[in-house]
Design brief:
The chain is α+β, with helices and mostly antiparallel strands and 348 residues long. It has two domains: 113 residues, Rossmann fold, CATH 3.40.50.10330; 164 residues, Tumour Suppressor Smad4, CATH 2.60.200. The protein has twelve helices and 13 strands. Strands 5, 6, 7, 8, 9, 10, 11, 12 and 13 form a nine-stranded antiparallel beta sheet that branches. A four-stranded parallel beta sheet has the order 2-1-3-4, with helices on both faces. Strand 8 and strand 9 form a beta hairpin. Helix 3 runs parallel beside helix 4 and helix 8 packs across helix 10. It starts with 6 loop residues before the first strand and ends in a 16-residue tail after the last strand. The relative contact order is 0.15. The model has no long low-confidence stretch (mean pLDDT 89).
Length: 348
């Protein structure tokens, strides 16, 4: 039996593609990297691919097409239990797939994560430099050869996020966008601007919701306590944001801290005027409204249910305990790219 120093598990989200013709192109590239061009020829057109047994320990790689949102967690755990060598997991899709793969490998010491962006959301690309890097990050051979960077995670009670967690205005806007996302997923794949339009419409509607924009929070940030009516709480591990923005450009995913912005309750007119600056990462222009902190742990509670978005996945509770998990995951960095330090808006 052949022995390999590292195994490779490729997980594909079919909802990130318009059909099996596109999926087969990606599968053919994977097969070509390991088995050569002749073996890759069988994957073509709109034919549903016949994949090898994903749990074979004799092959250096396996391919799995995800079937439902948390399916990758099950597959990864089962695959990792069989393998004695390090495994690199490739999340081929959008932020939702990355979230599932991340929580599949969390706390496993011999796992690595490669992000191959094909979805409508690719927030983590901002950590390396932006969406212009997507073609390089889609190169399978480059992802196979890439070194890794030890990277921080956001630990929210045992659920892990790579990009950010957001409460209040942003969490509710994400929740209200879900129905449109599911219904219009094919249109969103063809026209990326549709996703941004949905987010913006949901965000504007939330600005008129007095309960969301004025919810009372108790926030413990390391040794500092704050309470009162707030509109949003955004805790970032990297600067990426769902509509290709950088709302907290100061965030770097390997510095051992989380970057946090709180928007205090304000008038509707003032919120309408100042939210666009927030989306541009210019929260520092309005210190009377925006509070910025760098923290290692945060406890948030309220007398009403809290809606929190973890990398776009929404959860509800009355309290959340959030902390940074330093260097908790190893991320493949194509061509050895370091994480980019965008700096604050003042440095631009």
């Amino acid at each position: 039996m052949a022995i390999f120093s590292k195994k490779h598990l490729f997980i594909i989200n079919p909802r990130s593609f318009l059909g099996f013709r596109e999926i087969n192109r990606v599968i053919a590239e994977i097969v070509r990297c390991f088995d050569g061009p002749l073996a890759a020829r069988q994957f073509f057109g709109d034919v549903v691919p016949v994949l090898p047994n994903p749990y074979s320990i004799s092959s250096p790689y396996a391919i799995h097409i995800s079937r439902f949102p948390r399916d990758p967690i099950i597959v990864i755990r089962k695959y990792m239990a069989l393998m004695k060598t390090p495994v690199r997991i490739y999340a081929i899709g959008g932020d939702g797939l990355v979230f599932s793969c991340l929580n599949g490998i969390a706390e496993l010491p011999n796992a690595e994560l490669a992000i191959v962006p094909y979805g409508t959301g690719s927030d983590f690309t901002q950590s390396f430099g932006g969406v212009e890097l997507i073609p390089r990050m889609r190169n399978i051979q480059k992802q196979i050869d890439a070194p890794v960077i030890p990277t921080d995670l956001i630990d929210c009670g045992g659920i892990y996020a790579l990009n950010a967690c957001a409460l209040g205005f942003e969490g509710m806007a994400t929740l209200k966008s879900y129905a449109a996302f599911k219904t219009l997923w094919r249109i969103r794949r063809r026209f990326p601007a549709v996703t941004e339009g949905i987010y913006r419409i949901a965000g504007v509607l939330e600005l008129f919701d007095a309960d969301t924009m004025g919810q009372y929070y108790q926030v413990q940030m390391d040794d500092e306590k704050l309470e009162g009516p707030m509109s949003l709480i955004h805790i970032a591990n990297n600067p990426g944001y769902p509509i290709n923005k950088r709302v907290i450009p100061e965030a770097v995913p390997d510095d051992g801290v989380l970057d946090m912005v709180i928007y205090r309750k304000s008038s509707l007119l003032k919120s309408l005027r100042r939210m666009p600056y927030y989306l541009k990462g210019q929260h520092g222009k309005f210190p009377e409204n925006y509070l910025y902190r760098r923290v290692r742990s945060v406890s948030i509670s309220s007398d009403r249910p809290l809606c929190i978005s973890l990398d776009g996945e929404v959860f509800f509770d009355t309290a959340f305990n959030i902390r940074v998990a330093p260097r908790a995951v190893r991320i493949a960095a194509v061509d050895g790219m370091p994480f980019k330090h965008w700096g604050s808006y003042d440095a631009k």
